[in-house]
TrEMBL record:
Membrane topology: Peripheral membrane protein
E.C. numbers: 7.4.2.1
Entry's Gene Ontology cellular component terms: plasma membrane
Name the UniProt record assigns to this protein: ABC-type polar-amino-acid transporter
Family: Belongs to the ABC transporter superfamily.
UniProt-listed SMART domains: AAA (SM00382)
Gene3D superfamilies given in the database record: P-loop containing nucleotide triphosphate hydrolases
Chief place where the protein resides: membrane
Compartments (UniProt record): Cell membrane
Catalytic activity: a polar amino acid(out) + ATP + H2O = a polar amino acid(in) + ADP + phosphate + H(+)
Domain ABC transporter residue range list: 13-247
Pfam family, one: ABC_tran
GO molecular function: ATP binding; ATP hydrolysis activity; ATPase-coupled polar amino acid-transporter activity
Length: 281
């Protein structure tokens, strides 16, 4: 099961019977799904439904309680796996950008290439410049994160992940910390990436993006996949009442306010961040 994993038609991500508990709290309660190579899958669902936990299990930032996860032919849940080697093939972009504040955009892109992939300085810099240009920031290589807008910082974070030549990219609400006017540029970069054939698993509240870009949408609630299908099916014509209720809250913010924000499902209260649970990373 481990090994090269370049077989044809093999899934980029395969998740079987995934369970994750934090103490007594069962956050993932038996998740099965897969992402094919080149596919874009958007995961939607209320706050606290386990979306981030699912993503974090895929690259073993969280250790599953039970189940089996395979990434590009390598079983990451195999106790013998070289997880660093697997993680190198996975690009991850979070809500918060996690750039090094004391390094320029260019340096933020070269540091891991040099340390992890052992690229020499000129090679790392060339790849960094290519990727900064790809996200529309060719003129910002000397800027420090504090000199960039949130949207620009997030695009640097995407370029940084791309500079590592990932086989797939995981995105966890990459635009939800951004001012509305900055969201579009980041989504445009992600759209272009999808068009280039990148395999992407994207947790998002951007229904327009999901409808337009996703090959498949997965709706999660309460640690389970409630339904999945094409965007037209799941977002356009949801079969389950829970999906419909979620979508009406997301698509109509005034409904969300009446409901008490779309973070109400995190009512187990374990994150303890107060009233605005939606902004956890
Ligand atoms: N390290 C942890 N320890 C304890 N509980 C956790 C931990 N991480 C997550 N949880 C809990 O697991 C549940 C699912 O969290 P998760 O972050 O996966 O939800 P989410 O669907 O990503 O929500 P959001 O839309 O708010 O980001 C929540 O109840 C959360 O409080
Ligand atoms: Mg989350």
């Amino acid at each position: 099961m481990t090994g090269g994993g370049d077989g044809n038609g093999e899934n980029a991500i395969e998740v079987r019977g995934l369970h994750k508990a934090f103490g007594a709290l069962e956050v993932l309660r038996g998740i099965d799904f897969s992402v094919a190579r080149g596919e874009v899958v958007c995961v939607i669902g209320p706050s606290g439904s386990g979306k981030s936990t699912l993503l974090r299990c895929v690259n073993l930032l969280e250790e599953p309680t039970a189940g089996r996860i395979t990434v590009a032919g390598t079983e990451v849940t195999d106790p013998e796996v070289d997880i660093d080697r697997v993680r190198r093939r996975i690009g991850m972009v979070f809500q918060s950008f996690n750039l090094f504040p004391h390094l320029t955009a260019l340096e933020n892109l070269t540091i891991a290439q040099r340390r992890v992939l052992r690229r020499d300085r000129p090679t790392a810099a060339r790849i960094a410049r290519d990727q900064l240009a790809r996200v529309g920031l060719g003129d910002k290589e000397a800027a420090y994160p504090a000199q960039l807008s949130g949207g620009q910082q997030q695009r640097v974070a995407i370029a940084r992940a791309l500079a590592m030549d990932p086989e797939l990219m995981l995105f966890d609400e990459p635009t939800s910390a951004l001012d509305p006017e900055l969201v579009g540029d980041v989504l445009a970069v992600m759209r272009a990436l999808a068009r280039d054939g990148m395999t992407m698993l994207v947790v998002t509240h951007e229904m327009g993006f999901a409808r337009e870009v996703a090959d498949r949408v997965v709706f999660m609630d309460g640690g389970l996949v409630v339904e999945e299908g094409t965007p037209g099916q799941v977002v356009g014509a949801p079969r389950h009442e829970r999906t419909r209720a979620f979508l009406s809250r997301v698509l109509d913010p005034t409904a969300a306010e009446v409901d008490g924000t779309d973070g109400t499902d995190a009512a187990d209260g374990t994150d303890g961040t107060g009233p605005t649970t939606g902004q956890r990373t």
